[in-house]
Amino acid sequence: MPAAVLDKFNGNARRHAAFVAFILASALVFWKTLSTLVEYSLHNDSSSHIILIPLVAFSLLYIERKRVFSITGTSIGSGIGLALGGVILYWLVNRKFLSLDGNESLSLETFSIILVWIGGFIICYGLVALRAAAFPLLFLLLMIPLPDRILDRAIHALQEGSTEFAYFIFQAVGTPVLRQGFLLSVPGVTVEVAKECSSIRSSIALFITCLLAAHLYLRTPWKMALFALLALPLAVLKNGIRIVTLTLLSIHVDPSFLTGNLHHKGGFVFFLLALLILWPVLLLLEKSENPRKAMGPAACASQEPSSD
User: What's the CA dihedral at 93, 97, 101, 106 to 10 degrees?
Assistant: First the structure.
């Protein structure tokens, strides 16, 4: 093995060890918030994805390690500055200096921890590696619980959109329907698109899935953004299909479909339906990629390490 390659390998091994030690030490320092975050994730459907986000982010760093860590350096000033900013924000929130409601404290504390982690990454690997690792590191932002006010608005928008799509589908299949707010009345039954029926959990899961697929299979920024954003209208569409399907099954097959397992645990079926709709779109966008762009950012990475 050439000496230069061996030196680079040993250097990165030391950087990896330092970064892992930094993450573990910060996890101990912020243990109270992280344990609260895990508990919050386990008891809130809208945040059940949170505990998986760090695992996915760090897995992406490992999978893309040859590209991300091809050029490493040190950027101590920038890294310490960002990490210190995260610590100050955490201290302000923890000491109740900011006027916050609901889960906003947890959201800001989580954001501050992510700043500290990214600051540690910059210290260990430099700014060039930071640019190469932009997606996995920014992906960590999905750990942040949506503030209650934003979450309520998102759920309300899903309710409205799902009701509208369901109303349209009922009309399209020739089923008489009357809409009053979130109530849909068809012959024999009236259903309400309640908050619990907004499908916020599967909608977030669909968005995250599209985001990951766009990162792994696409290279053109506008195509990546387009595919990720397609998850939003499709989330509403598949929920509308779910409402209509369950309602028609309850009318024509068995009334228990509105209260049975397909209603409470069948969201995964309609999630797969959404993925089947998105699959040909992803293939079309991938085939339309410019071969040169498909080489990825590693092909045009800067040749100089960053240092302060």
Answer: 10
